Amino acid sequence: MQINRRAFLGLGAAALAATALTANTMGGWTLINSGAQPLLLSARNDSAGKHFVVGYRLDGSQVFATPVSERCHDVVAHPFLPMALFVGRRPSTQSYLIDTRDGRLLQILHSPQQRHFYGHAVFHKDGEWLYASENDTSDPGRGVLGVYRVQGQHVQRSHELSTHGIGPHQLLWLPDGETLAVANGGIRTEADSRIEMNLDAMQSSLVLLRRDGRLISKEQLAEQMNSVRHMAVASDGTVVTGQQYMGNARDNVPLLAIKRPGQPFQHFPVADAQRQLMNQYTASVAIHSELRLLALTAPRGSRVFIWDLDSAELRLEAPLADCAGVGAVTDGFVVSSGVGRCRFYDCRGSEISSSPLQLPAGLWDNHLRLA
């Protein structure tokens, strides 16, 4: 089934009609505000196993596919310049700054000695600073945020901050744009390794800190081997995290958690039938703030889940083989797959419907972003 015209136009807030182009310049860049569809950014392989960072419009048209030397994880778009950083997959020491207009490689960003990337980063809203989660390999697992300054078409490391935890993974801004939420996975790893060193003494946590590194709060879940990994943040400041449980596969452990404003970090209620389908592993998380919906991919169970963020009512449980990235668009969510077609989940009605997107099938990596 093809996406109908109404659903397709709903994929982007600006896609209803072409608007007049407005442009200005900043630091040699041309800033364009147009009526284009959202640009889907992700990492992807080809059938020969070569690695690419790609940009596609949701109608399937390719904007760029740039070869890179290794697998990437997440991608973060600059808030107003046409560039994005594709972050190396743990324990990579390289990330790739790309011009999103044509895929030109602007810079290979190298982590300093005794540091490696953990797969995630964020730009500050003013566009001048980049923060990346990193491992201190001189003290394996000690979490730091590498702080980099944007200088034209390059970024330069300035300093680093403590994440107040071990094994930091994803980081996101709260709505004030000055407070960071950091998911400390709690797992120690050596340099150039993905081998877990401390499963019997994990210290996973959700940390909130100011942009200058001052700690606001640090909270942990009751299950010591429940690694906090990926996150989404709603416009009201609600934080949802997806966990990966590192203990026995038969243990009954909740894999979603939530921190609402002014409330403690606690489990998000998920029925046991859905929890079992996750196979102790969650991947990408997204929140649709306007529709008050929460989406999660569980690739080990080949399931996409959507809940009402406020009532925790399950709105959708759908099969999708090796589901990967998920991102919110105007009328619902877009989900990628490692082996099948990417899909659009239309959430406007009482029943959520699904349609395939005309994007290349399969070989998509863990995350996607819409810019």
Strand order of the largest sheet: 5-4-3-30
**CATH class call of the largest domain:** Mainly Beta
Strand content: over 45%
Helix content: under 10%
Total separate domains: 2
The CATH architecture designation of the largest domain is: 7 Propeller
Q: Averaged pLDDT, please?
A: 90
State the low-pLDDT regions, or none.
1-34
Q: Could you say what the CATH topology of the largest domain is called?
A: Methylamine Dehydrogenase, Chain H
| CATH homology group of the largest domain | YVTN repeat-like/Quinoprotein amine dehydrogenase
Main sheet: strands, sense, barrel: 4 strands, antiparallel
Measured distance between first and last alpha carbons: 26 Å
Number of strands: 30
Question: Which term fits the overall shape?
Answer: globular
Question: How many helical elements?
Answer: 2
Structural class: mainly beta
What Rg is obtained from the alpha carbons, in whole angstroms? 19 Å
Concise overview:
The protein has helices at 5-9, 272-277; strands at residues 22-26, 29-33, 39-45, 51-57, 62-68, 72-77, 83-88, 94-99, 105-110, 115-123, 129-136, 142-151, 154-166, 168-173, 179-184, 205-210, 215-219, 226-233, 239-245, 256-259, 266-267, 285-288, 293-298, 303-308, 314-319, 323-329, 332-337, 343-346, 353-356, 364-370. With 371 residues, it is an all-beta fold.
Structural commentary:
There is one protein chain. This protein has 371 residues and is mostly beta strands. It folds into two domains: 111-220, no CATH class; 221-371, Methylamine Dehydrogenase, Chain H. The protein contains two helices and 30 strands. It has helices at residues 5-9, 272-277; strands spanning 22-26, 29-33, 39-45, 51-57, 62-68, 72-77, 83-88, 94-99, 105-110, 115-123, 129-136, 142-151, 154-166, 168-173, 179-184, 205-210, 215-219, 226-233, 239-245, 256-259, 266-267, 285-288, 293-298, 303-308, 314-319, 323-329, 332-337, 343-346, 353-356, 364-370. The strands form eight sheets. It has a four-stranded antiparallel β-sheet, with no helix packed on it. Strands 6-7-8-9 form a four-stranded antiparallel β-sheet, with no helix packed on it. A hairpin with a 5-residue loop joins strand 24 (303-308) and strand 25 (314-319). The longest helix is centred in the C-terminal third of the chain and has 6 residues, at 272-277.
